[in-house]
Automatic annotation (TrEMBL), chain A:
UniProt cross-references to NCBIfam families, sorted A to Z: PRK01115.1-5
Alphabetical GO biological process terms: leading strand elongation; regulation of DNA replication
GO molecular function, one term: DNA polymerase processivity factor activity
InterPro entries found in the cross-reference section: DNA_clamp_sf, Pr_cel_nuc_antig, Pr_cel_nuc_antig_CS, Pr_cel_nuc_antig_N
Assigned keywords, A-Z: DNA replication, DNA-binding
Function: Sliding clamp subunit that acts as a moving platform for DNA processing. Responsible for tethering the catalytic subunit of DNA polymerase and other proteins to DNA during high-speed replication.
Subunit structure: Homotrimer. The subunits circularize to form a toroid; DNA passes through its center. Replication factor C (RFC) is required to load the toroid on the DNA.
Boundaries of every Proliferating cell nuclear antigen PCNA N-terminal domain copy: 6-99
Family assignment from sequence similarity: Belongs to the PCNA family.
Cross-referenced Pfam families: PCNA_N (PF00705)
Name by which UniProt lists this protein: DNA polymerase sliding clamp
Gene: pcn
TrEMBL record, chain B:
Biological process annotations from GO: DNA replication
Quaternary structure and partners: Heteromultimer composed of small subunits (RfcS) and large subunits (RfcL).
Protein name: Replication factor C large subunit
A GO MF term: ATP binding
Ranges annotated as biased composition (Basic and acidic residues): 419-428
A Pfam family recorded for this sequence: RCF1-5-like_lid
Keywords from the named record: ATP-binding, DNA replication, Nucleotide-binding
TM region(s), chain numbering: none
Function, as annotated: Part of the RFC clamp loader complex which loads the PCNA sliding clamp onto DNA.
Composition bias type Acidic residues, residue spans: 439-452, 462-479
Organism: Natronococcus jeotgali DSM 18795
């Protein structure tokens, strides 16, 4: 059983943050809220999303699992004006999701969850450095780096205590330093890893400019990026495997 | 019921059957990967366990897997984004030092429209990879030279009957199926080296029967495709009429292609009267193929096939033996060689047809030969220039018709003269058009050049009516002209 009413913004931001990595996903309809975990086809990026029941106008569920085509669902959610409410109801018999936006009714055929890529196990990582910054600073770093290269180095300078972003292109370089004053918080530790900009760009799209974003970093280790949405009732964690630094 | 080939897919390399040497090579490649950092091509017939071995290897090494198989969309962009990224990135659990196994299934099939540019991208990915890559392929030589050179190679051989039987026996025990040993041997024999088919056949038979006996197995015989060369050998040297016809059922060629193959190779072994008979039947077959084309009734194919196989086999009078070097139909290579000439010919014929109001076929068959004869070697220069001007021929085309060399001064000067003549004629034509236009210009003060000549015509007809207002139209003039409204 699943029946919920949610604002268009909340649903769209939840879906957007998953659809940057995968086209289809499984959604766990738990009693306390929604949960989505997915890993991209290349096994390089992972997303873990939770949206508490309190983020919904109303929410009833008893632990089902559905598989959805994200772009379809996003298109439907896009039909709603901002501030409008979207009503979702699962028909257990037909395995279809009834979606209602004002007078508009849409019946979405679901995908067999077994046919969707297996959900990843969330690896336990011990990442020594932590950087907390504003979403718009992430955006600035990624946009600048994208002008010159297809990969980006994120690191923390332990001596001088600042967070840096490096992008080296064939001819041009971009370097950005953010000191303690520019950041919301900084936990110094040994950290320097190279990442694919394609992925970071996609993830960046889902990060709201005013969100408080936390980056956990290590040396040649995956980065963990997390931020809240829907007034803190939703939580997204991205993980991205590092590029191997070739010599 | 789940698919047994999935249920009993080996989870570790030691369970991979029948290819011990290849299996050990694969393991060694993986264990020493950090030293050589090369990709590996695993090739062999379908169903011998190549993909299973790759997955089992990843399991043994505890490497996460990224697989791209033929059911995924595999354009160059997808390969770059997915396989490229996977082969350059570390893992989510261990970061930069973690290994991931990239499996590119059916790597010999990265071509065709959907995969446009795919094979080149694969080579690029392989060369710039920082992670181990296994390319799985059926046909080693269908992959490009540069890709083959960049990789190590491991061949999986067909699984012998001796290795298949124990696998089947094991599955039967685990599924609780009773069996006769001969039944398993029969399955193993029928599938000739294809372990996956053997397991599928076993499942198909076992689902029907309580106890597996040889009789059960006989029902499920597999079609195999026979190579065209083996078929030619059987047709020309061994089989009788019926045998040749049956053998042709297993050949994967259309009757049109098959006819070409047979027609080209029969004279290598047949002599004299028997060859004449064989060609008689081939001619019959060709007539039937013509009927198929004309009527689009493909049921006539059977008569074509009867003639070209049974007919040819029945014509044989002397026993044949030895080995003959059969080759692909020369008709095809001839078509390939003459493509340029035929294109030139058709291009000329099209222009003649348009100009003379005939069909292209008529232009090609009836006009072109006369032109050729009349302008042979440009002897009649004046005529040749006129022809070139009329049909707007270039050097290549003039040389095609006259038989003179394309780069000779003679041909070049003819084309130049023709161009000049054409220009003159254009000026002449437009001159009179302008002239006609000017005469009426004053009356209706027309605007555009092209429009003027049209108006001129319209105005002429009006003035001949001697009706300056133009209110009283000609009785048969249902369609008003544009100038009526100007």
């Amino acid at each position: 059983m699943f029946k919920a009413i949610v604002s268009a913004e909340t649903l769209t931001s939840a879906l957007d943050s998953v659809s940057v990595l995968v086209d289809e996903c499984k959604i766990h309809l738990e009693e306390e809220g929604l949960e989505i975990r997915a890993v991209d086809p290349a096994n390089v990026g992972m997303v873990d999303l939770s949206l508490e029941a309190a983020a919904f106008e109303s929410y009833e569920a008893d632990g089902g699992l559905i598989g959805v085509d994200l772009s379809r669902l996003e298109d439907i959610a896009g039909m709603a004006d901002s501030g409008q409410l979207i009503q979702l109801e699962l028909d257990e018999e037909t395995r279809k999701l009834h979606i209602q936006i004002d007078g508009l009714e849409y019946t979405l055929a679901l995908i067999d969850p077994d046919s969707i890529r297996q959900e990843p196990d969330i690896p336990e990582l011990d990442l020594p450095a932590r950087v907390v910054l504003e979403g718009k600073d992430v955006n600035r770093s990624v946009t600048a780096a994208d002008m010159v290269s297809d990969h980006i180095a994120l690191g923390v300078d332990e001596g001088e205590e600042f967070f840096y972003v490096d992008a080296e292109g064939d001819t041009d370089d971009v370097h950005l330093e953010l000191t303690r004053e520019d950041l919301i918080d900084l936990q110094v530790g040994p950290a320097h890893s190279l990442f694919s900009l394609d992925y970071l760009k996609d993830m960046n799209k889902a990060i709201p400019g005013d969100a408080e974003v936390t980056l956990d970093l290590g040396e040649e280790f995956p980065v963990k990026i997390y931020f809240g949405f829907a007034e803190g009732l939703g939580q997204v964690t991205y993980m991205l495997a590092p590029r191997i630094q070739s010599d | 019921m789940s698919d047994w080939t999935e249920t009993y897919r080996p989870t570790t390399l030691s369970e991979v059957r029948g290819n011990n040497k290849a299996r050990d090579q694969l393991r060694e490649w993986a264990e020493t990967w950090d030293d050589h950092r090369k990709a590996v091509i695993v090739h062999g017939s379908p169903g011998v366990g190549k993909t299973s071995a790759a997955h089992a290897l990843a399991n043994d090494m505890d490497w996460p897997v990224m697989e791209l198989n033929a059911s995924d969309s595999r354009g160059a962009d997808v390969i770059e984004r997915v396989a490229g990224e996977a082969s350059k990135s570390g893992t989510l659990t261990a970061g930069g030092s973690g290994r991931r196994l990239v499996i590119l299934d059916e790597a010999d099939n990265f071509h065709g429209n959907a995969d446009y540019g795919g094979s080149r991208e694969v080579t690029r990915v392989v060369k710039s990879a920082n992670q181990p890559i296994v390319l799985v392929a059926n046909e080693f030589y269908d992959m490009s030279q540069s890709l083959r050179d960049a990789c190590e190679t491991i061949e999986f051989r067909d699984v012998s009957k001796r290795s298949i039987v124990p696998v089947l026996r094991d599955i039967c025990r685990r599924e609780g199926v009773e069996f006769e040993e001969e039944a398993l041997e029969k399955i193993a024999e029928d599938t000739s080296g294809d372990l996956r088919s053997a397991v599928n056949d076993l499942q198909a038979v076992a689902e029907e029967a309580e106890r597996l006996t040889v009789e059960d197995v006989v029902t499920g015989e597999r079609d195999t495709t026979e190579g065209i060369f083996d078929f030619l050998d059987a047709l020309i040297k061994e089989e009788d009429a019926r045998g040749a016809l049956y053998a042709s059922y297993d050949v994967d060629e259309t009757p049109d292609d098959l006819l070409n193959w047979i027609e080209d190779n029969v004279p290598k072994d047949y002599r004299g009267a028997e060859l004449a008979d064989a060609y008689g039947f081939l001619a019959n077959a060709d007539r039937w193929l013509g009927r198929v084309r004309a009527t689009q009734d493909y049921s006539f194919w059977r008569y074509a096939t009867d003639n070209m196989t049974a007919g040819v086999a029945a014509s044989r009078r002397e026993p044949k033996g030895g080995w003959t070097r059969y080759g692909p139909p020369s008709y095809w290579s001839k078509l390939g060689r003459t493509k340029g000439t035929r294109n030139t010919r058709d291009a000329i014929a099209e222009r003649i047809a348009e100009r003379e109001g005939t069909s292209v076929a008529t232009a090609r068959r009836e006009i072109l030969p006369f032109l050729s004869a009349m302008t042979h070697h440009c002897k009649n220069r004046e005529l040749t220039v006129r022809m070139a001007a009329t049909y707007e021929l270039d050097e290549g085309e003039v040389s095609f018709i006259t038989g003179s060399g394309k780069t000779t001064n003679k041909v070049e000067s003819i084309v130049a003269d023709a161009a000049e003549r054409r220009e003159e004629r254009t000026v002449e034509h437009s001159g009179s058009a302008f002239f006609g236009g000017e005469s009426t210009d004053d009356e209706d003060g027309g605007d555009g050049d092209d429009q003027q000549s049209l108006e001129a015509v319209a105005a002429d007809s009006e003035s001949s009516d001697a009706d300056p207002d133009g209110t009283d139209d000609e009785p048969d003039d249902d369609q008003s002209g544009l100038s009526d409204f100007m």
